[in-house]
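Reply to dn_fold:

You asked what the input looked like. This is it:
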Amino acid sequence: NPNGAVQQFSGSVISDASGNYSFNIAAYSDYTFTLTPPVSAAVGVTQLQSIDLSISDNAKDLALLQKITLSGTVYLADGVTAASGVRIKVFDNSSYGVYLGDVTTDSTGVYSFSVTPGTYGLYLGVLYNSGSNAELIGSYVSYAQVDNLILTTDHVEDITLPIVNISGRTVDSNGVPVGNVTVDVSSANLPRINPN
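and this is what came back:
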């Protein structure tokens, strides 16, 4: 670039069976490496930030982090009834909210996800007519989140959904009932659940 601005670079290479890799790249002091091992490996996706390659010829061993398990049970508001069919999206908060994937609770409300040690956010969505949650309305009702969940080892995070029931009548300005009214609900902010 003639103006001296740094251009974006993206590329990849797969290490051989012994873990060896090699490639040519422009000398620069702020690269991010994302290491994605085979699914069957005991190590997980690892992101290494601020890697300095500004000096000539670099020998860099890139260490992947061991997988740990984030699991738990999701409950309805009573704290006792298991919530099946809840979709949990997992984000890596230490890497600018990178989406890692999602999992859906089973018939007993249980979920499990493999991650590496770090700080995570969970976003929970309750789908309409999903298992024991058939009484809920909307495409995603109770979309809540757990922020800044710091994990260093296997961790169990049970979650009680912050679901409340609201009922009443649709009426005109004189208080006379009006039937067949569609009631849509939205919010600009997600309810937050504190990690256990």
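DSSP finds no helices and eleven strands in the chain.
Hope that clears it up.
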